[in-house]
Every structure is written in structure tokens, then in C-alpha cells.
Specification:
The complex is a heterodimer of chains A (110) and B (112). Helix content of chain A is 0%, strand content 55%. Chain A has no helices and eleven strands. In chain A, strands 2, 4, 5, 9, 10 and 11 form a six-stranded mixed beta sheet that branches. Chain A has a five-stranded antiparallel beta sheet with strand order 1-3-8-7-6, with no helix packed on it. In chain A, β4 and β5 form a beta hairpin. The N and C termini of chain A lie far apart (41 Å). In chain B, strands 2, 4, 5, 6, 9, 10 and 11 form a seven-stranded mixed beta sheet that branches. A four-stranded antiparallel beta sheet of chain B has the order 1-3-8-7, with no helix packed on it. The chains are: A mainly beta (110), B mainly beta (112). At the A-B interface, β4, β5, β9 and β10 of A face β4, β5 and β10 of B.
């Protein structure tokens, strides 16, 4: 079945350092979504990418969708303590099932 | 605006007891509804989804079941809980396929 792999599992950074998480799908995706889950909370939608090669920015966050629509990345520039949490990618092949990656848990040391 | 309600927030149940978790959505009609489970420190496992009243698709064969008795109501049930059923249960809705998912606050279930 469809799988979405996400690396790394954990990332410890010093405040001010950059952070990147990567997502790979075993099948071509119709879109990819990114979510953030704060410790103890529920996942919150960040962004959706649909087009091949698409790049979107939200302040210090940059999201990319690969040309083959099988991979994606989230890059955070100059991390802050408020960025702490788990970042999930989630892929959809056009049906009703959104499959989540295992998530990357970000720790930021002040 | 749309809101999603999920309850209870926490639940401690003995092995072999029944389970009923409820989720309701307000401010929209005919949403797609989902139940996910998250083990501690892990990703989200899709359990069930529904695209309409009475329609349920199961992703993981186990002792859980789901029902959608009304358009904006989604219920997760079990007749007899197992220790392995412990986890964080999340209900979510979307307006149409491939749309962003909106999650409820979740239920932390501990089976003892």
C-alpha cells in the first residue's frame, strides 16, 4: 500500500539554526500537506502543495514539492523556541485517504 | 465558522470494557470524517473514514468499529478493549477529498 516516509525522526537544534525535514512517497501524490503538532496538542494544518516543483513560503518556513510529486521538504530558517513540535507531511493520491508520515520531532535549545 | 468537538479528552478504561468516543462537526455539511490513532511519540495511523451517512471504510482490521449515524457525527467504538488500544485518538474532517484536514483536540485513552 501507499507509504509516506519522513526523516529524520528527531532533530535537536540550537535556537537560530536552520532545520529541514524530508518526506518521500512510494507513489506519485496528487498533493502533499504539512501539519504541525505542538507537544500535547493536535495536528494543525500548515500548507498544501499541489503542483510539481511548487515552492511556498510562510515567513521563515519554506515548503517544496518535488518535480516527480513523490517528495517534499520543509525548511525552517533561524529556528525559534516557538517552532518546537512535531512536523508531519501527509500525502494523498487523489482518493479519500490522507496518509501521514511518521513525523519529525523538533527540539530547539535556547 | 466550522468547529469540531471531540470528547472525552482523557479516558482510563480497564481491559475488556467497552468504548465509545464521539466527534461532531459544526458549521458545514457532508464533510468527510476520519478517525486516526497516534501511539506515544509516533505518527498518525488511519483507522476509519466516512464520506457520507452510514458509510464507513476501515483501514485496519481490529476490535474497533466506527459509525456515522448523522451527517456531522462520527463515533468510534469497541466492545472489548485491549491493552494495545491505548493511544491518542483524533477525529478529523475535510470538506471534499484532498482538502486540508481539521483535527479535534483528541482523546487520550489508557487501557489498564
Amino acid at each position: 500500500g501507499q507509504q509516506v516516509m519522513q526523516i529524520p525522526q528527531y532533530q535537536h537544534v540550537q535556537e537560530g539554526e536552520d532545520f529541514t525535514t524530508y518526506c518521500n512517497s512510494s507513489t506519485t501524490l496528487s498533493n502533499i500537506q504539512w501539519y504541525k503538532q505542538r507537544p500535547g496538542g493536535h495536528p494543525v494544518f500548515l500548507i498544501q502543495l499541489v503542483k510539481s516543483g511548487e515552492v511556498k513560503k510562510q515567513k521563515r518556513l519554506t515548503f517544496q514539492f518535488g518535480e516527480a510529486k513523490k517528495n517534499s521538504s520543509l525548511h525552517i530558517t533561524a529556528t525559534q523556541t516557538t517552532d518546537v513540535g512535531t512536523y508531519f507531511c501527509a500525502g494523498n493520491t487523489g482518493g479519500f485517504k490522507t496518509i501521514f508520515g511518521a513525523g519529525t520531532r523538533l527540539f530547539v535549545k535556547a | 465558522s466550522q468547529t469540531i468537538h471531540q470528547w472525552p479528552a482523557t479516558l482510563v478504561q480497564p481491559v475488556g470494557s467497552p468504548l465509545s468516543l464521539e466527534c461532531t462537526v459544526e458549521g458545514t455539511s457532508n464533510p468527510n470524517l476520519y478517525w486516526y490513532r497516534q501511539a506515544a511519540g509516533r505518527g498518525l495511523q488511519l483507522l476509519f473514514y466516512s464520506v457520507g451517512i452510514g458509510q464507513i471504510s476501515s483501514e485496519v482490521p481490529q476490535n474497533l468499529s466506527a459509525s456515522r449515524p448523522q451527517d456531522r457525527q462520527f463515533i468510534l467504538s469497541s466492545k472489548k478493549l485491549l491493552l494495545s488500544d491505548s493511544g491518542f485518538y483524533l477525529c478529523a474532517w475535510e470538506q471534499g477529498a484532498n482538502s486540508p484536514l481539521h483535527f479535534g483536540n483528541g482523546t487520550r485513552l489508557t487501557v489498564t
